[in-house]
Specification:
Elements (H helix, E strand, L loop, with lengths): L1 H7 L5 H13 L3 E5 L7 E5 L2 H6 L14 E3 L2 E3 L35 H9 L3 E10 L2 E14 L3 E5 H4 E2 L4 E2 L4 E5 L5 E10 L4 E5 L10 E2 L10 E6 L7 E13 L11 E5 L11 E3 L4 E9 L7 E5 H14 L5 E2 L2 E6 L1 H10 L9 E7 L4 H5 L6 E5 L2 E2 L3 H8 L7 E7 L3 E7 L2 E2 L5
Parallel strand pairs: 13-18
Antiparallel strand pairs: 1-2, 3-4, 5-6, 5-10, 6-7, 7-12, 8-9, 10-11, 11-12, 14-15, 14-17, 15-16, 16-19, 17-18, 18-19, 20-27, 21-22, 22-23, 23-24, 23-25, 25-26
């Protein structure tokens, strides 16, 4: 700051400098130093729109502009909340807080969360499913959902609309749906996938229905702001906010058995009734479906990533159900540190930079029949180099009964070519 003031004194009087800093402080603005060695040294000052209109320096028209505040060799920009990627810096645009304008990339304004929630809120619905046991009413299952298509397609959780014990849809697939504007409909459960806990409900309306936009979960990072919306405890139109805590929390980390699943972990407050509601980014796009929380802890909530949900929806459209190939392999993604540790333990471990380790092969499985062994490192799958389990899953897609060529490395760098024929996974797995 002293360096900044010394530089400033060459061009402006002491009163001008004090005036600038005083206005910034009085307007509850943010002044901070950017010492990033990769960029030009800069002091950044964020000033509310109302004060910017009254700020002028006589005789210095070049100082004030709508896009940049130039001060000698120190460019002053409207403040970002976080650092921008190097390629985005020249693309920033000023944001007038409170005017409803969309914030620039990475910038969180006073109304960012409220604006994002307002985009999605009309499409968030309350779901109520009467439950019965041998004809006797046993209460209701209450949850949330989101209209994702103006034709009345609602995205929600399977456990809200499906009887988990009997693996059947409750109440003959009928769901009571209440919109934010008070309209009520009787919905029908069209598809439900127990493994992912994702379901589709359909309603019919003679009047237009609001619909939320699906975003992408692939570029989410820990620390990104997110919003959870839904009807906890039947309290409709409830909004909570938090950050992404983990982008790839594995089902095994949570003690969940069965096939591998990955979740978004957030610290958004969700409760009973939030299930099926949307997880939203600051652009007002759905990036997940809220599914569960850890009851014995606070700030541990989980959502199904929207990229996974989109693939499930495609399966619903194509086959009416989700088809999952099964190999019978337990797999582990390798990185440099894990490889180094394994080589310390056993010098015979194959020379690889990346790949997928096979710690266990299920007896009698397709992988067992193909000749896989514990300790194999998969380096190529169906003719494509692979570095992660996710890549193998994407390559297999829904290919059941079709031979796939696999190359693995074994101890002492033995390279082996295998052919595996995936079977359809047991839906109860």
């Amino acid at each position: 700051m002293n360096h900044f003031l010394r530089k400033a004194s060459f061009s402006f009087s002491r009163n001008s400098i004090i005036r600038i800093i005083a206005i910034g402080t009085a307007g509850s603005s943010l002044l901070y130093w950017n010492a990033n060695l990769d960029l030009k040294t800069a002091v950044k000052l964020s000033i509310p729109a109302l004060l910017r209109e009254h700020l002028s320096l006589q005789g210095c028209p070049s100082f004030v502009s709508s896009d940049h505040w130039l001060f000698g060799y120190f460019p002053l920009f409207l403040s970002r909340v976080g650092p921008a990627p190097a390629g985005d810096i020249t693309k920033e645009a000023p944001v007038a807080v409170g005017d409803g304008a969309k914030p620039s990339c990475g910038c969180l304004g006073r109304d960012s969360i409220a604006n994002a929630a307002a985009k999605v809120a009309p499409a968030v619905v309350n779901l109520s499913v009467p439950q019965d046991f041998y004809g006797l009413s046993t209460g209701k299952s209450v949850g949330s959902g989101t209209i994702i298509d103006a034709d009345g397609t609602i995205l929600t959780c399977a456990h809200v609309v499906v009887d988990y014990q009997g693996r059947r849809v409750t109440s003959k697939g009928k769901v009571d749906v209440t919109l934010q504007d008070g309209r009520t409909f009787e919905g029908t459960v069209v598809n439900a996938d127990m493994h992912s806990d994702i379901a589709i409900v359909k309603i019919k309306s003679k009047t237009p229905l609001p619909a939320a936009k699906l975003g992408s979960s692939s570029k989410l990072r820990p620390g990104d702001w997110v919003i959870a919306m839904g009807c906890p405890l039947s309290l409709q139109n409830t909004v909570t906010a938090g950050i992404v805590s983990c982008v790839d929390r594995k089902s095994s980390d949570l003690g969940l058995g069965g096939m591998r699943r990955e979740y978004l972990q957030t610290d958004c407050a969700i409760n009973a009734g939030n299930s099926g509601g949307p997880l939203v980014n600051v652009d007002g796009e759905i990036i997940g479906v809220n599914i569960m929380k850890v009851l014995s802890a606070d700030g541990l909530s989980f959502s199904v990533p929207i990229d996974s949900v989109s693939k499930i929806i495609e399966h619903f459209k194509k086959s009416g159900r989700v088809i999952r190939p099964w190999l019978g392999l337990k797999m582990l993604d390798l990185n440099e540190m894990i490889i180094a540790q394994l080589k310390e333990r056993d010098a015979r471990f194959p020379e690889v930079e990346k790949g997928i380790l096979v710690p266990m092969v299920t007896p009698g499985s397709p992988a067992d029949h193909a000749g896989f062994r514990p300790g194999d490192v998969v380096i190529e799958f169906d003719g494509k180099p692979v570095q992660s389990i996710k890549e193998i899953i994407e390559i297999m897609d829904d290919r059941i009964g079709k031979p796939l060529k696999v190359i693995v490395k074994r101890a002492n760098n033995e390279v082996v070519k295998l052919t595996v024929i995936p079977e359809e996974a047991n839906p109860d797995m």
